[in-house]
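Exercise: predict the fold of this chain.
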Amino acid sequence: MAKKKEKKAEVKIVTPEEDQKKLEESLDLVELVKEKEEGTFDENVEKERANIFAIYKKARVQNNIIMVITVVVMIASLIFMTQFPTWGPIVGGVLIGAAFIFLVVHYILTKNLFPNTTKKYIKYFIKTVDDYVFDIKGASEQKLYAEKRYALSDTLGDKVYKDVIDCASRNIVSFKYQNKDVEVGELALYKQGAKKLQKAVLFVGKYMSLKNDMHFEDRYIVTIKGETETDLPNDIEDLVVLSEQNKFVIYGKEGAKFEKDLGKELIENLKSVECTGALVNVNIVFWAEHTAVYLSYDDSIVAIPFDKKINKDSYVQLKKNITELLEILVK
Protein backbone atom coordinates (compact mmCIF):
# COMPACT_ATOMS: atom_id res chain seq x y z
CA MET A 1 0.00 0.00 0.00
CA ALA A 2 1.48 3.32 -1.07
CA LYS A 3 2.29 5.75 1.69
CA LYS A 4 0.50 9.04 1.62
CA LYS A 5 2.79 11.94 0.99
CA GLU A 6 2.89 14.10 4.11
CA LYS A 7 2.05 17.71 3.53
CA LYS A 8 4.58 20.04 5.08
CA ALA A 9 3.25 22.82 7.22
CA GLU A 10 3.68 26.19 5.64
CA VAL A 11 5.60 28.70 7.68
CA LYS A 12 4.56 32.27 7.05
CA ILE A 13 7.12 34.88 7.95
CA VAL A 14 5.53 37.98 9.42
CA THR A 15 7.65 41.08 9.19
CA PRO A 16 7.72 43.59 12.07
CA GLU A 17 5.93 46.08 9.79
CA GLU A 18 3.08 43.61 9.10
CA ASP A 19 2.85 42.71 12.78
CA GLN A 20 2.65 46.39 13.77
CA LYS A 21 -0.01 47.01 11.10
CA LYS A 22 -2.20 44.18 12.47
CA LEU A 23 -1.80 45.53 16.00
CA GLU A 24 -2.75 49.03 14.90
CA GLU A 25 -5.82 47.73 13.04
CA SER A 26 -6.97 45.74 16.09
CA LEU A 27 -6.62 48.84 18.28
CA ASP A 28 -8.42 51.06 15.75
CA LEU A 29 -5.46 53.39 15.21
CA VAL A 30 -6.24 56.96 14.17
CA GLU A 31 -3.52 59.36 13.07
CA LEU A 32 -3.91 62.76 14.70
CA VAL A 33 -3.13 66.36 13.73
CA LYS A 34 -2.57 65.59 10.01
CA GLU A 35 -6.16 66.21 8.88
CA LYS A 36 -8.11 68.77 10.89
CA GLU A 37 -11.47 70.35 10.19
CA GLU A 38 -12.00 74.03 9.55
CA GLY A 39 -13.06 76.02 12.55
CA THR A 40 -12.01 75.69 16.19
CA PHE A 41 -12.22 72.37 18.02
CA ASP A 42 -14.86 73.62 20.46
CA GLU A 43 -17.10 74.98 17.68
CA ASN A 44 -16.92 71.67 15.77
CA VAL A 45 -17.64 69.62 18.90
CA GLU A 46 -20.56 71.88 19.85
CA LYS A 47 -22.23 71.29 16.47
CA GLU A 48 -22.09 67.53 16.96
CA ARG A 49 -23.13 67.74 20.60
CA ALA A 50 -26.12 69.93 19.76
CA ASN A 51 -27.19 67.46 17.05
CA ILE A 52 -27.02 64.40 19.27
CA PHE A 53 -28.75 66.17 22.15
CA ALA A 54 -31.55 67.22 19.78
CA ILE A 55 -31.93 63.56 18.71
CA TYR A 56 -32.03 62.51 22.37
CA LYS A 57 -34.72 65.09 23.25
CA LYS A 58 -36.79 64.13 20.20
CA ALA A 59 -36.57 60.44 21.14
CA ARG A 60 -37.58 61.22 24.72
CA VAL A 61 -40.65 63.18 23.53
CA GLN A 62 -41.61 60.34 21.17
CA ASN A 63 -41.29 57.78 23.97
CA ASN A 64 -43.47 59.88 26.26
CA ILE A 65 -46.15 60.20 23.55
CA ILE A 66 -46.06 56.46 22.89
CA MET A 67 -46.36 55.76 26.62
CA VAL A 68 -49.43 58.00 26.88
CA ILE A 69 -51.05 56.39 23.80
CA THR A 70 -50.36 52.92 25.19
CA VAL A 71 -51.96 53.78 28.53
CA VAL A 72 -55.01 55.24 26.77
CA VAL A 73 -55.36 52.13 24.59
CA MET A 74 -55.09 49.84 27.63
CA ILE A 75 -57.75 51.81 29.51
CA ALA A 76 -60.05 51.82 26.47
CA SER A 77 -59.54 48.07 26.04
CA LEU A 78 -60.51 47.41 29.66
CA ILE A 79 -63.62 49.60 29.29
CA PHE A 80 -64.71 47.71 26.17
CA MET A 81 -64.07 44.33 27.77
CA THR A 82 -66.03 45.14 30.94
CA GLN A 83 -68.87 47.29 29.58
CA PHE A 84 -69.67 45.40 26.39
CA PRO A 85 -69.51 41.65 27.17
CA THR A 86 -70.64 40.55 23.70
CA TRP A 87 -68.21 42.28 21.36
CA GLY A 88 -66.06 44.23 23.86
CA PRO A 89 -63.55 41.43 24.57
CA ILE A 90 -62.86 41.06 20.83
CA VAL A 91 -62.27 44.79 20.29
CA GLY A 92 -60.28 45.05 23.50
CA GLY A 93 -58.10 42.10 22.53
CA VAL A 94 -57.48 43.58 19.08
CA LEU A 95 -56.49 46.94 20.61
CA ILE A 96 -54.12 45.31 23.10
CA GLY A 97 -52.58 43.15 20.37
CA ALA A 98 -52.13 46.15 18.07
CA ALA A 99 -50.54 48.16 20.89
CA PHE A 100 -48.16 45.29 21.69
CA ILE A 101 -47.12 44.89 18.02
CA PHE A 102 -46.61 48.65 17.73
CA LEU A 103 -44.35 48.69 20.80
CA VAL A 104 -42.29 45.76 19.50
CA VAL A 105 -41.85 47.37 16.06
CA HIS A 106 -40.91 50.71 17.64
CA TYR A 107 -38.35 49.01 19.88
CA ILE A 108 -36.75 47.13 16.96
CA LEU A 109 -36.50 50.28 14.84
CA THR A 110 -35.06 52.51 17.55
CA LYS A 111 -33.08 50.25 19.93
CA ASN A 112 -29.74 50.93 18.21
CA LEU A 113 -30.42 54.50 17.09
CA PHE A 114 -29.21 56.37 20.16
CA PRO A 115 -26.41 53.98 21.25
CA ASN A 116 -24.89 54.02 17.74
CA THR A 117 -25.24 57.79 17.45
CA THR A 118 -23.66 58.20 20.89
CA LYS A 119 -20.68 56.00 19.97
CA LYS A 120 -20.16 57.99 16.80
CA TYR A 121 -20.28 61.25 18.75
CA ILE A 122 -17.81 60.01 21.39
CA LYS A 123 -15.39 58.90 18.68
CA TYR A 124 -15.71 62.27 16.92
CA PHE A 125 -15.31 64.18 20.19
CA ILE A 126 -12.14 62.34 21.20
CA LYS A 127 -10.54 62.67 17.75
CA THR A 128 -11.39 66.40 17.45
CA VAL A 129 -10.16 67.29 20.94
CA ASP A 130 -7.00 65.19 20.57
CA ASP A 131 -6.19 66.91 17.28
CA TYR A 132 -6.09 70.16 19.24
CA VAL A 133 -4.50 69.01 22.52
CA PHE A 134 -1.64 67.04 20.97
CA ASP A 135 -0.77 69.53 18.26
CA ILE A 136 2.28 70.45 20.33
CA LYS A 137 5.51 72.02 19.17
CA GLY A 138 8.22 69.35 19.23
CA ALA A 139 5.70 66.47 19.03
CA SER A 140 5.35 64.15 16.03
CA GLU A 141 3.75 60.85 14.97
CA GLN A 142 0.66 61.46 17.12
CA LYS A 143 -1.52 58.34 17.08
CA LEU A 144 -4.79 57.61 18.86
CA TYR A 145 -5.46 53.98 19.77
CA ALA A 146 -9.25 54.06 20.13
CA GLU A 147 -9.60 50.46 21.35
CA LYS A 148 -6.48 50.24 23.51
CA ARG A 149 -6.94 49.98 27.27
CA TYR A 150 -4.60 50.03 30.25
CA ALA A 151 -4.31 46.95 32.45
CA LEU A 152 -3.85 47.14 36.22
CA SER A 153 -0.27 45.96 35.76
CA ASP A 154 0.49 49.04 33.65
CA THR A 155 0.14 51.35 36.65
CA LEU A 156 0.65 49.22 39.78
CA GLY A 157 4.37 49.09 39.06
CA ASP A 158 4.54 52.87 39.52
CA LYS A 159 3.82 52.39 43.25
CA VAL A 160 1.86 55.62 43.57
CA TYR A 161 -1.48 54.06 44.52
CA LYS A 162 -2.15 50.84 46.41
CA ASP A 163 -5.29 48.79 47.17
CA VAL A 164 -6.34 49.18 43.53
CA ILE A 165 -9.01 46.64 42.58
CA ASP A 166 -10.05 47.92 39.15
CA CYS A 167 -9.20 50.44 36.47
CA ALA A 168 -10.90 52.03 33.48
CA SER A 169 -9.23 53.80 30.57
CA ARG A 170 -9.74 55.20 27.09
CA ASN A 171 -8.35 57.70 24.60
CA ILE A 172 -4.73 56.50 24.67
CA VAL A 173 -2.43 58.60 22.48
CA SER A 174 1.20 57.87 21.68
CA PHE A 175 3.65 60.27 20.09
CA LYS A 176 7.26 61.32 20.01
CA TYR A 177 8.45 64.44 21.77
CA GLN A 178 11.98 65.47 20.88
CA ASN A 179 12.47 61.87 19.66
CA LYS A 180 11.37 60.34 22.97
CA ASP A 181 8.33 58.04 23.15
CA VAL A 182 5.43 59.43 25.18
CA GLU A 183 1.99 57.99 25.92
CA VAL A 184 -0.99 59.85 27.37
CA GLY A 185 -4.38 58.36 28.21
CA GLU A 186 -7.46 58.84 30.36
CA LEU A 187 -7.35 56.65 33.46
CA ALA A 188 -9.46 55.92 36.52
CA LEU A 189 -8.26 53.77 39.43
CA TYR A 190 -10.64 52.29 42.00
CA LYS A 191 -10.36 50.78 45.48
CA GLN A 192 -12.89 48.86 47.54
CA GLY A 193 -15.74 51.08 48.71
CA ALA A 194 -17.58 51.08 52.02
CA LYS A 195 -20.00 48.43 50.75
CA LYS A 196 -19.12 45.07 49.25
CA LEU A 197 -20.13 45.87 45.67
CA GLN A 198 -19.13 49.52 45.86
CA LYS A 199 -15.98 51.03 44.34
CA ALA A 200 -14.33 54.25 45.47
CA VAL A 201 -12.19 56.46 43.22
CA LEU A 202 -8.46 56.66 43.95
CA PHE A 203 -7.53 58.62 40.85
CA VAL A 204 -9.26 59.97 37.76
CA GLY A 205 -7.64 62.09 35.09
CA LYS A 206 -4.79 61.91 32.57
CA TYR A 207 -1.92 59.44 32.83
CA MET A 208 1.36 60.16 31.02
CA SER A 209 4.34 57.82 30.80
CA LEU A 210 7.76 58.35 29.27
CA LYS A 211 11.38 57.27 29.65
CA ASN A 212 14.05 59.24 31.44
CA ASP A 213 17.86 59.12 31.64
CA MET A 214 18.05 58.96 35.42
CA HIS A 215 19.86 56.30 37.45
CA PHE A 216 19.19 55.78 41.16
CA GLU A 217 17.71 53.26 43.58
CA ASP A 218 13.96 52.95 44.22
CA ARG A 219 11.66 55.91 43.46
CA TYR A 220 10.69 59.50 44.17
CA ILE A 221 7.14 60.86 44.15
CA VAL A 222 6.59 64.57 43.58
CA THR A 223 3.14 65.83 44.56
CA ILE A 224 1.80 69.22 43.55
CA LYS A 225 -1.40 69.90 45.47
CA GLY A 226 -4.32 72.05 44.42
CA GLU A 227 -6.91 73.84 46.50
CA THR A 228 -8.77 70.58 47.05
CA GLU A 229 -6.37 67.88 48.17
CA THR A 230 -7.68 64.83 46.36
CA ASP A 231 -6.22 61.80 44.52
CA LEU A 232 -3.12 62.04 46.70
CA PRO A 233 -0.66 59.08 46.61
CA ASN A 234 -1.36 56.38 49.19
CA ASP A 235 1.45 53.91 48.43
CA ILE A 236 4.02 55.84 50.46
CA GLU A 237 4.40 53.78 53.65
CA ASP A 238 8.00 52.97 52.70
CA LEU A 239 8.79 56.61 51.91
CA VAL A 240 9.32 59.77 53.94
CA VAL A 241 8.80 63.45 53.18
CA LEU A 242 12.18 64.68 51.95
CA SER A 243 11.03 68.21 51.13
CA GLU A 244 7.82 70.17 51.59
CA GLN A 245 7.21 73.76 50.55
CA ASN A 246 3.63 75.01 50.59
CA LYS A 247 1.80 72.51 48.36
CA PHE A 248 4.92 71.00 46.77
CA VAL A 249 6.04 67.71 48.35
CA ILE A 250 8.83 65.26 47.49
CA TYR A 251 8.63 61.71 48.87
CA GLY A 252 11.54 59.27 48.81
CA LYS A 253 13.57 56.81 50.81
CA GLU A 254 14.95 58.15 54.05
CA GLY A 255 18.35 59.74 53.44
CA ALA A 256 17.95 59.76 49.64
CA LYS A 257 19.80 62.56 47.86
CA PHE A 258 16.88 63.85 45.83
CA GLU A 259 18.53 67.05 44.61
CA LYS A 260 21.41 65.03 43.15
CA ASP A 261 19.21 62.27 41.68
CA LEU A 262 16.46 64.48 40.22
CA GLY A 263 18.47 67.62 39.61
CA LYS A 264 17.94 71.06 41.14
CA GLU A 265 16.79 72.52 37.81
CA LEU A 266 14.07 69.89 37.39
CA ILE A 267 12.82 70.44 40.93
CA GLU A 268 12.70 74.22 40.57
CA ASN A 269 10.88 73.94 37.23
CA LEU A 270 8.28 71.58 38.72
CA LYS A 271 7.61 74.10 41.49
CA SER A 272 6.32 76.46 38.80
CA VAL A 273 3.48 74.06 37.91
CA GLU A 274 0.19 75.31 39.35
CA CYS A 275 -2.93 73.28 40.07
CA THR A 276 -5.69 75.71 39.13
CA GLY A 277 -8.89 75.57 37.12
CA ALA A 278 -9.66 72.06 35.91
CA LEU A 279 -6.34 70.65 37.19
CA VAL A 280 -6.91 69.36 40.72
CA ASN A 281 -3.65 67.63 41.63
CA VAL A 282 -0.41 66.28 40.10
CA ASN A 283 1.59 63.24 41.17
CA ILE A 284 4.84 62.42 39.35
CA VAL A 285 6.79 59.26 40.10
CA PHE A 286 10.42 58.93 39.05
CA TRP A 287 12.12 55.56 38.69
CA ALA A 288 15.40 54.90 36.94
CA GLU A 289 14.57 55.21 33.22
CA HIS A 290 10.81 55.61 33.83
CA THR A 291 8.60 58.59 34.63
CA ALA A 292 4.83 58.49 35.13
CA VAL A 293 2.61 61.53 35.62
CA TYR A 294 -0.86 61.39 37.18
CA LEU A 295 -2.83 64.56 36.44
CA SER A 296 -6.13 64.72 38.31
CA TYR A 297 -8.83 66.72 36.52
CA ASP A 298 -12.40 67.68 37.30
CA ASP A 299 -15.49 66.67 35.28
CA SER A 300 -14.90 69.31 32.60
CA ILE A 301 -12.09 67.05 31.32
CA VAL A 302 -12.92 63.51 32.47
CA ALA A 303 -16.59 63.60 31.38
CA ILE A 304 -17.69 63.87 27.75
CA PRO A 305 -20.27 66.69 27.43
CA PHE A 306 -23.81 65.78 26.29
CA ASP A 307 -26.32 68.10 27.93
CA LYS A 308 -23.81 70.92 28.48
CA LYS A 309 -21.44 72.75 26.15
CA ILE A 310 -17.78 71.81 26.06
CA ASN A 311 -15.63 73.83 28.43
CA LYS A 312 -13.06 75.24 26.01
CA ASP A 313 -10.93 76.79 28.76
CA SER A 314 -10.40 73.39 30.40
CA TYR A 315 -9.00 71.87 27.21
CA VAL A 316 -6.82 74.90 26.57
CA GLN A 317 -5.46 74.35 30.07
CA LEU A 318 -5.01 70.61 29.46
CA LYS A 319 -2.88 71.32 26.40
CA LYS A 320 -0.87 73.88 28.37
CA ASN A 321 -0.34 71.43 31.26
CA ILE A 322 0.89 68.62 29.01
CA THR A 323 3.15 70.98 27.03
CA GLU A 324 4.61 72.51 30.20
CA LEU A 325 5.36 69.13 31.78
CA LEU A 326 6.94 67.79 28.59
CA GLU A 327 9.21 70.82 28.40
CA ILE A 328 10.28 70.21 32.01
CA LEU A 329 10.60 66.42 31.95
CA VAL A 330 12.15 65.88 28.52
CA LYS A 331 15.64 67.29 28.34
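Check your answer against the key: Confidence is low (pLDDT under 50) at residues 6-16.
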